[in-house]
Amino acid sequence: MMLAVTVEDEVRSANSAFYSAFERGDLDAMAGVWDRTERARVTHPGWPTLYGWAKVLGSWEAIFANTDYIQFVLTEEQILVLDGVAIVTLDENILQGASGEGGADSDALSGARVAATNVFVHDGRQWRMVHHHGSPVAGDAV
Q: Which of 46, 69, 86, 117 is 20 to 30 A distant from 131 in Cα terms?
């Protein structure tokens, strides 16, 4: 017996594809997740908001070029679907490669937590990301 795939399942799959591409540093896979138009926008932690696919793509190129290792454990995921738009809120619990003193590479890992909002639109075939916003979380959550 086949289980019916819900809209929330489709959105969850699109969101998972985003984080999978991020962990692998796969620019082609990342591009496959996004709405590659001027509607695309991203706010990385500590960055200003970037508008338009060219700037969004450039930001991923820079991040991938400067990230040796990153892993996400996603928690508190909530999905809200409204007329062809899906909003996913979640916590990104991040483990990533850290640089040693003076910028030298080391085997050290560091952890961080980011509160993220991902917005998707349905293009008639699949859910495409139009916005990713990540804000660092300081200390323990309330």
A: 69
Q: Which amino acid is at 104?
A: A
Tens-digit pLDDT profile for residues 34-56: 999 999 999 999 999 999 999 99
Cβ contact 67:25 at 8 Å: yes
Amino acid (one-letter) located at 94: I
Q: How many residues does the chain have?
A: 142
Query: Residue 51 has which token pair?
Result: 């508008």
What pLDDT digit, counting tens, does each position of 100-121 carry? 444 445 567 788 999 999 999 9
Neighbours of 2 (CB within 10 A): 4
Tokens of 19: 């984080």
Q: Which amino acid is at 98?
A: A
One-letter identity of residue 69 = Y
Give me the pLDDT at residue 3, please. Answer: 77
Query: Is the dihedral angle over the CA atoms 102, 104, 107, 113 positive or is it negative?
Result: positive
Dist CA 66 CA 81 (whole Å)? 34
